[in-house]
Amino acid sequence: MTGNREQTLRPNLQADRKATIGDVAALAGVSVGTVSNVINGRAKVSAKRKEKVEAAIKTLSFSGSLLAKGMRSQRYPVVGLCVPNMTSSNFVHMSDALEAHATAAGFELVHVITRHDPAREEARVERLIASRASGVLILPTRRGDIPLAKLAASAMPTVIINRFVESEMGADQVLVDHRSAFRRAALNLIDWGYDRLIVATQFPNFAVVQQNIAGMRDAIAESKRPVVLEIMKCGRTPEEFRDLLADALPKADPHCALVASGSLLAARAIESMRTLGLRYPDDVGLLCAEEPDWAQALWPTLSCVQQPTRELAQIAWDLLARRMSGEGEAPITIRCDARINFRGSVKSS
Fold first, then answer.
1. How confident is the model at residue 223 (pLDDT cuts 50, 70, 90)?
2. Residues 290, 320 contacting (CB under 8 angstroms)
3. What is the CATH code for 2-60?
């Protein structure tokens, strides 16, 4: 039957006209919606129908990509993931999860690294817009308003991940409630006798770091204890980190806890402590703001604030898929809770 449909349909197509999604639907004997679902992986389609649609696409050399009902211009089945770097374990795990979601839905995930550079971020976003990508998932830099505004102006389906942007720019947002997580973490540290907290970060003005600090300040105010909070702005090299730590901790301070804002800085902290003759948790406590794969391979094991990266990725993809399908509800912001894993790197009593 499929062969007969081919023979009757093909001659009716004008030589200079490209096949449309309607032609594919007619040849496969299914609805246009079913063809769209097969192309974009938005809904379950039976194996038999999927086979018919794919055969019709091949027969008609159909190269169109209907990504949303009524979309004015077609886009390529590519989604951009725009992140500052890939040194963070959170970014790596999130990228892996998003890659799986994109592949399952028939999209290619393109990684765009901004290196915390607003100009680079703007250029990369402009390229994604010019290439007619289907959507963008973005962790914007501290000055990301211009790229977000350009994404909004181009009607690009966009989801902001893990970095709250007050102006929204018409985009959905999914993030961790960092302030709440670090309030809870700091309250525990204070209860266990830590009265000096040092936040080690390369980017103290980033929104996430600011939320972490705000949560710790909330805990200090709530505890009503004379706890000192310090911000240690780190250099870019392990040697610079070691020198800064040596100045901040010239000798052991068992009532001090160092909070590393990422897994890279946690690794540098451990290396620097070893060089300086400091041991955790006896001489200083250590907490990492994310959960690297090697956290439990250390001895003592590393305490971490574990962000729900898989959950974030799932929600972010679902929100983007909704936008790419043409749904036009008002933007929403979803906050997820983090888990605090206290292990051997801090003294809990």
1. very high
2. no
3. 1.10.260.40
